[in-house]
Amino acid sequence: MDLTQLLTNQLPTLVAVILGVPAVLVGYIVAFEFAVRQLPPQHQPRVRPWIWVGPALVFVSVFLVYPAVDTIRISLENRQGNWVGLANYQQILSGFPTGGAWIAIRDNLYWLVLYTGFVLLFGMLFAVLADRVPYETPVKSLIFMPMAISFVALGVIWKFMYSYQSPGLPQTGTLNFVVTSLFHQPPITWLQDERVNNLALITAAVWGQVGFAMVILSAALKGIPGELLEAARVDGAGELTIFRRVIFPLMMPTITVVGTTLVIFALKAFDVVYVLTFGNYNTEVLANLAYKELFTFSNAGVSGAVAVLLLLTVIPVLIFNLRQFRAVEARR
Amino acid sequence: MTVASERLQTIEAARYSPRWIADRLQGAVLHVVIIGLTLAWIVPTLGLFVSSFRPFSLISSTGWWTALSPPFNFTLDNYVKVLSSNNLGTALVNSFMISIPSTVIPVTIAAFAAYAFSWMRFWGRDWFFLALVGLLVVPLQVTFIPLLTMFNKAGISGTFLAVWLAHTGYGLPFAIYLLSNFFRALPTDLFESAEMDGAGTLTVFFRIVLPLSVPAIASLVIFQFLWIWNDLLVALIFVGGSEPVAPLTVKIAGLVNSLGQGYHLLTAAAFISMIVPLIVFFSLQRFFVRGILAGSVKG
């Protein structure tokens, strides 16, 4: 399609939406605010808040809460929309350890442990190390950069890192070049070989997310008062002891918050898997399975059941987050 | 010997003691480790970047590192081809068409709601807010099937409108959460004195709260924009393969899976998709980092 033609077609829509929607929303608030002022003064504070939160409540109810509840209903129906009880759940939970959704559950567990662990480890490492060099800012920018790009672009980057050529041919992938030239081993099919492929996917995702952990942990690290560290040094504590006994405990709350965020990411892992393997060669994850069931197998019921399973796995984190939130609120 | 020279001698001794060497060595090791790790971190991006300027025949036969030594053999072919023959230009425009409204709409709605949540009293306020915090982690997968049905019935399936509506619903919990945290931190005196001067709710919101919250709103806008620009899942579900509406992420993911022809064009396509986020990131890094800090370190 001609690009200029496209622009002349789309640009007016874009401008209309960008200016129009906020204008309508502001108009709505102003109009109702004047309406509220006509009410007797004692009623005003009871009506006004609903006008301000109204649009948000409507959107969240219609596009998040209602569909979530409806998905539970759908997960109890078959393709024809007839009630089948827990049959869909039975289908995805039968055939342990390789049938149903069990491969996906196993791989999500890999993600949960390895992805969360490595992102925290490298994030901490970069936060602590970069803090001690004068060129901290450029180092942090470079590590953080992958956060800005999409998981699709990230997937393409790693697809080329993991490229494989038959033994004897010159390797085009960076990793296989290292394996063959430096270690004199046969090249590895990183994305197909079931001994390494899950780790390969997780590595790509870790590479992209370390910057996130680093930024938050680094901010927490800088929040630790310098006198505290000085005092420990004066008392003759070594750098390692200081890290273990002073820095680490003080950073624990931040590590927990970052950790729970990463756990959620690990459970929802989708893009990297979709782009690099589409869940083949036993690299399936729940999010990709839900997608496949819906679009490849047109089985809404099973897809819904997988989605509900995914929802159930995040509930412990959800409860933990709510508790944290209430504890913080109580201290306010 | 004078006291001064005695002290000098001690200092000299200290400087040449093994401990000093050990410290220096530790410093050197630190530099080597951190520079080494950082270099390792940029190798994947660098490799793809170099590849994107290499001709097809070379990409598939030799590694990108061979291009760094003569004979240099660089070309813009991949960029030219992918933009002309693969409708990547359309996808680029579509990415803007999806991302900008999907940022503007939820941020506006969230600003109103966050103001009510932080400075008005109403029935169930704390419970509603708690529900929003809970919704922050709910996987979007649980919403897809009913929303698809809903959009089909409304006849807007596969249009920009469907994607805008979905992104608005999905983005609101985080947007309200982030802005409420910021609004609540504004000093109470500000509101009391404004009220004493007879300022109405509208005046307080538009003249005091909004101008003071520009940094918070800027972080939120950048965050939401990048999130949508980079999103694959939601676009895949609500746009699918619909060419005239599909954004860059969907288009490129399609290229990856259609192995064989066009594989080498992926290099250029990936970089085209990265230009906008990288510009946003490097020019507005401050706000981006602030958004991350405000969004995750609760309280």
Describe this structure in words.
The complex is a heterodimer of chains A (332) and B (299). Chain A has two domains: 3-74; 102-283, MetI-like fold (Orthogonal Bundle), CATH 1.10.3720. Chain A is built from 13 helices and no strands. By secondary structure, chain A is mainly α. The termini of chain A are far apart. Chain A is globular, with a radius of gyration of 26 Å. Helices cover 73% and strands 0% of the residues of chain A. Chain B contains 15 helices and no strands. With 299 residues, chain B is mostly helical. Helix content of chain B is 75%, strand content 0%. Chain B has two domains: 3-77, no CATH class; 81-296, MetI-like (MetI-like fold, Orthogonal Bundle). The relative contact order of chain B is 0.11. At the A-B interface, helix 1, helix 2, helix 4, helix 5 and helix 6 of A face helix 2, helix 5, helix 6, helix 7 and helix 8 of B.
Short description:
The complex is a heterodimer of chains A (332) and B (299). With 332 residues, chain A is mostly helical.
Q: Provide the CATH superfamily of the largest domain in chain A.
A: MetI-like
* Nearest-integer average pLDDT of chain B: 85
> What is the helix/strand order of chain A?
HHHHHHHHHHHHH
User: What is the general shape of chain B?
Assistant: globular
Class of the largest domain in chain B, according to the CATH hierarchy? Mainly Alpha
- Tally of DSSP β-strands of chain A: 0
Q: What summary fits the major beta sheet of chain A?
A: none
CATH architecture of the largest domain in chain A: Orthogonal Bundle
The 3D shape of chain A can be described as: globular
Q: What class do helices, strands and sheet pairing of chain A give?
A: mainly alpha
What's the assembly state of these chains? heterodimer
Number of domains of chain B: 2
For this structure, what is the CATH homologous superfamily of the largest domain in chain B? MetI-like
The total domain count of chain A is 2
Q: Round the Cα radius of gyration of chain B to an integer and report it.
A: 27 Å
CATH class of the largest domain in chain A: Mainly Alpha
Order of helices and strands of chain B: HHHHHHHHHHHHHHH
Give the name of the CATH architecture of the largest domain in chain B. Orthogonal Bundle
